[in-house]
Design a protein that fits this description.
Blueprint: H1 27-40, E1 46-52, E2 55-60, E3 64-65, E4 68-69, H2 71-89, E5 100-105, E6 110-115, H3 117-122
Antiparallel strand pairs: 1-2, 3-4, 5-6
Helix pairs in contact: 1-2
Length: 144
């Protein structure tokens, strides 16, 4: 925490906070995205982080310079997150091998996961994600 204002420090809202919420196969994608965003702005903040439709969904918070919206930063950050999201849809979330989004289910519930052929056939089906109540946030918040 930042002692002067009681607000979270930027590192409390950066990619490493969420690394443990996804499969190990996506760790290299998140590491690279974190390095790229740090190079763009060491104080970048993640506004939302989720796994939806079998892939990552990440939004970087807007940045303002001198009270003005920094459109160049937004464009560059969005290009980086878009690339990571696309890569996640083509990378097995378990092992990191090339994969694709596959439907999984038990007959009553169906969900999507990015898996390679090997993990799709050798790993047991993971339990269905918990259902969210209406009005609950779709974002994963790592701390609270």
């Amino acid at each position: 925490m930042d002692d002067t204002r009681g607000l979270p420090s930027p590192s409390d809202r950066q990619i490493p906070v969420w690394a443990g919420t996804v499969g190990p196969g996506w760790a290299p994608l998140l590491d690279q995205l974190h390095r790229d965003l740090l190079a763009l702005d060491p104080g970048y903040r993640i506004e939302s982080f989720a796994v939806k439709f079998g892939g990552l969904r990440i939004t970087v918070a807007d940045r303002f310079q001198g009270g003005e919206f920094d459109g160049e930063f937004a464009d560059r950050a969005t290009a980086l997150t878009d690339a990571a999201e696309t890569a996640s849809e083509n990378t097995c979330d378990e092992c990191g091998a090339p994969g694709r989004i596959r439907l999984r289910g038990d007959g009553q519930h169906v969900w999507m996961q990015a898996r390679c052929e090997t993990c799709r056939t050798t790993l047991p089906s993971c339990p269905a994600p918990p259902r969210q109540s209406p009005g609950s946030p779709s974002q994963v918040h790592p701390k609270g």
